[in-house]
Amino acid sequence: MADRSAPSCHLRLEWVYGYRGHQCRNNLYYTAAKEIVYFVAGVGVVYSPREHRQKFYLGHQDDIISLALHPERVLVATGQVGKEPYICVWDSYTVQTVSVLKDVHTHGIACLAFDLDGQRLVSVGLDSKNTVCVWDWRKGKLLSVAPGHTDRIFDISWDLYQPNKLVSCGVKHIKFWSLCGNSLTPKRGVFGKTGDLQTILCLACARDEVTYSGALNGDIYVWKGINLVRTIQGAHAAGIFSMNACEEGFATGGRDGCVRLWDLNFKPITVIDLRETDQGYKGLSVRSVCWRGDHILVGTQDSEIFEIVVHERNKPFLIMQGHCEGELWALAVHPTKPLAMTGSDDRSVRIWSLIDHALIARCNMEEPIRCAAVSTDGIHLALGMKDGSFTVLRVRDMTEVVHIKDRKEAIHELKYSPDGNFLAVGSNDSSVDIYGVVQRYKKVGECIGSLSFITHMDWSSDSKYLQTNDGNGKRLFYRMPSGKEVTNKEEVKVVQWASWTCVSGLEVNGIWPKYSDINDINSVDANFIGQVMVTADDYGIVKLFRYPCLRKGAKFKKYLGHSAHVTNVRWSHDHQWVVSIGGADHSVFQWKFVPDRKLKDSLHIAPQESLVDSNSDESDSDQSDVPELDSEIEQETQITYRRQVYKEDLPQLKEQCKEKRKSAASKRRERAPGNSIRLHFVHGYRGYDCRSNLFYTQTGEIVYHIAAVGVVYNRQQNTQRFYLGHDDDILCLAIHPLKDYVATGQVGRDSSIHIWDTETIKPLSVLKGYHQYGVCAVDFSADGKRLASVGIDDNHTIVLWDWKKGEKLSAVRGSKDKIFVVKINPYMPDKLITVGIKHMKFWRRAGGGLIGRKGCIGALGRTDTMMCAVYGWTEEMAFSGTSTGDVCIWRDVFLMKTVKAHDGPVFSMHALEKGFVTGGKDGVVALWDDTFERCLKTYAIKRAALAPGSKGLLLEDNPSIRAISLGHGHILVGTKNGEILEVDKSGPITLLVQGHMEGEVWGLATHPHLPICATVSDDKTLRIWDLSPSHCMLAVRKLKKGGRCCCFSPDGKALAVGLNDGSFLIVNADTLEDLVSFQHRKDVISEIRFSPGAGKYLAVASCDNFVDIYNVMSSKRVGICKGASSYITHMDWDIRGKLLQVNTGAKEQLFFEAPRGKKQTIPSLEVEKIGWASWTSVLGSCCEGIWPIIGEVTDVTASCLTSDSKVLATGDDFGFVKLFRYPAKGKFGKFKRYVAHSTHVTNVRWTYDDSLLVTVGGADTSLMLWTYEMEGHRDSRQCDSEESDLDSEEDGGYDSDVTRENEINYTIKALSTNIRPMFGIKPHLQQKEPTLDERPPVSRALPQPEKLQTNNVGKKKRPIEDLILELVFGYRGKDCRNNVHYLNDGADVIYHTASVGILYNVATGSQSFYQEHNDDILCLTVNQHPKFTNIVATGQETQQICQLQLLLFMCGMQ
Asked: Which of 980, 985, 926 is nearest to 950 (CA)?
């Protein structure tokens, strides 16, 4: 079998040629260490000119477009483009991430700036509103956000002399912002008569509210406050792209290629025209300047970086060059020297030295260059052009040898033959031309087999064959030099290829993902000696594969850095380096090849060189052919927690049923019953898909979860208390280090985590808004202040919370595959680990993000699936349990060794003071010493070891262990089978809690005269439960198939059980031994019932639409009830045992006569008169009211009537248990509702004396007992009942005023209709008829765009007199309350009307106004605290209706 694993060697980024000058500005700075920081493609570069060395920051995964330097000049902030762009703040010395800021911007981050003390960062987005955000970047916390402007913003800066002030500028505007509280308020700069309104490109702030800004026409505008006070005209001949302030003054750089230095008062000091210097050229444009001391850095549009020393200003030093705008496709390497040649759409061809990391030659051509090749002797360089021609140059002096144009379309590939005699030229005309090198490039052959453009070519070693790839993905072969196509496969098989750069062919099958477009891999190059190959693709990724790579979907190592398409990639002549080029980022990356033997040494290199701490994984998620998943884990990963409808959808669904509600509201409905139920005991523990969810509390009680209930169990008294704050399955549980609080996470559309107190059972905090579908793992930090959680969304998002404040600290996408456990480092709460399917990751917090590093396995093996993890005795030690039974011991991110601990997966692990305890699928609990070297003791969970005080029976020996916890001298063990056991250190085991295993529970029957019930489930067990205070499982029997229904005989001696294969059994109710069994049906038996009285008949209903009636005594089938059009759901006998009532899946209510099964038609009035032995039906006029308004979405699955026929209990698909008055006539009856089950409540039954209601929840496997409480017995603790589906409107809950106010709609006025109809056009909107001399000249040009016509730049306008508000009549009382207050001991009255806050002086009768609102004020309050006298808060309507903009103002001090 071909090896599909990733290669063990790897690549390390060594050098990046280029600088991003296009479309960016102000992106080049000196750091404190006198290094130069800038970016290119998706890489932040720190270059040391002294050592000629580069360091790289690789935390971005798309083009970086903005950069800001912290005032201390060590930290750098960079912003990228992308759908969900983020900002990284990183250390320029260590190139490690310090903070990640995300989740706010879209499209990209256009500008960044730090404030004076470096605590806050402002960012501007590329979205349509150009959103401005202010961050507390260390915490990753958003402080304020506001829409920036309708047009692009080019620069933003903090005013370094006034706190909380910012200035931004861009297309035809400049704005002055003030940050007050969390609100950013802008004021537009007033251009006035001083200067033309125009685009401002850059700015710098100075003392005394002065701001200098560079304009598009080359002027500098000087602002005082928000007014333009003067302009410095002609500062540059064209747009000023960059302005940099330093201690000495200001430096500006412009499109005219000049850099100007100014003093602190903006008086000119000197000018440096780069176009006039030796290195200069026509068209040089400056995009970035940085002035420090006597050095100036200049970045140009064409990707050069110059360094200028001030006293030798006419000799700038060129320290970095790259290709300019236009795509970069051509790449060739010299056959004998460490040189790389590149050619681009910028029409330049350049030669780079891979040893000196420098450009050594450059030549400009007439046409854009698309491909390049160097002859075998290294003398000629051939270049293929976009216009279909190709040129050959001498490498030595770049002089032209020949220029040939035989084609019209671009030349995309050319290659010299290994013997140096021929040049093959492949064009987009679908043909390959062969030229003789010696005959001065005379055409000697042509290959015309392709139907699409030629993309790749390779010569055979003997120069006799050529293989080509084309745009259709076809691979063709030709005999050389004639160009005749070779169709004989056998002939081709023996050919040895001189190089391999083709993307299709057997040898490179594995480079293609299993489902991918044939064009998204742009380039391949094989290293035959090292047996590896490198590929370049459209996603900005360079990948390393083994060569040959025969099987599709092979594993690889991947390297990020290029932002978009990587167009070409080649090995250097000696295979020491890989060179890759980026199409749109036009950068050249040089990677060092590190073979496997050096890997071991490289692990101990400085951190940024070995494991570059990037947000990318070194390799694809699952590295190689890992052994098959354990069946149990396989099962678990396939469980889906998605719901069709979530409980959160209920309000919305009800809203959609408005019409029904209205009609129902007009009819009088039966009130809800007076009696109620209270949850009393729950059988079950969720072990089959959860782990480490079982703990001792401070007081020695046991806390765990089942269904939607958090359970605190007192093992001495055998009682339970319940946390009922969740409304769907709880999937995880963690305990606070002080063992008094618990965190539980649930399933939900926007799923929540609840932190609650185990003593008071009260919630302390609920965390929502970041996890979709559910939360599968939680963990507290050692100080108890933080909580980590993992979601079950597609990215398994990891979130770190300050849970008391309910604040998200950081978040990150965890993994594509399931994560099982998250653990916070007990010594450093900023670090955590996650484990999961082929996943072991070490994370550290960086602001609003988390930086992850994969566990480094080295030569010790492959990443296995990890099931559990704990931290050890130091902050660096961690231990994880694998799915193969090993324990991995980690130091930092490195795997030190593995220890065999269990047969099968290690599901649970717990750290002790001295040592560890583990539990596995093999049912063994093992105690270890503190280094995992010795196993001190093992306990096998066996029936034989069960102590006499157990509350049930162990279903099987050695059940799979899912949770382990220690405390109070015992080991607490939770199993997959839903059992909780307590293991005494000396050996005996006590069973405490038990429930059904995985699979739905449907069958439920209560005993006719004892507190006992029976359940049967898809887990293939039949169980008998004691409902008296001893609450335990009395008996269990394994069945050959799962079952869906059961029923006691009227004397309680026999028990009938219907199975899923169409058979049923009757067993002895005490011993559970078979009495009789039958099989007449093939489909599931859905309901089974003994006739009342002597129990003469047994009715058996199946999902194939029939009910069979058996005579119990003679064991014969005596009747068949036919006529149902769907499967049977419910069945009841009448008291005489002569009539059967049947419900079907098609919602039919049918009647059959026993024993023959003749169908009867009975009018509904008669049905009510019949005495029924039981009522479990959900249809008919007596239970019309039990169906909810949203009956289409959810089914009522079960019902049961009390023996006094007064209260009907129902269970439905939403997990609700409801009580109705019986008969529930009329639609939408009122009810009491209880939540504890998670989704479907599959069955409900009252006990024989109605003292308890027993319910089972399908997939949540739980059996719940509820005590029935008569009216008057009020227990305030838990009335989670809602009176009804309908609100109380119809009960006359409102008077007319309140109703009217309730219906006021505060939508935006602009969107609603006018108050009175208006005709005509308002004067300022009327288009004036142009006078004759103003008429535009007749022209064929397009009309000017609207925008320009209205911008009367520089036209003089008549000054407008200001109006001052003097008096306001009116007060808003119609829909507001508590909005009039006394201030200043009764001297003043404060109130509001319209958008004005009014302070009315009682003595003088005068008014003063607060006018900062821009829409109706709806509420007002006064701060009563003596410290804050006269502080008022008012809230208004805004365009985001839900967001109340609160403005605090001081009264009397406007």
From this structure: 980
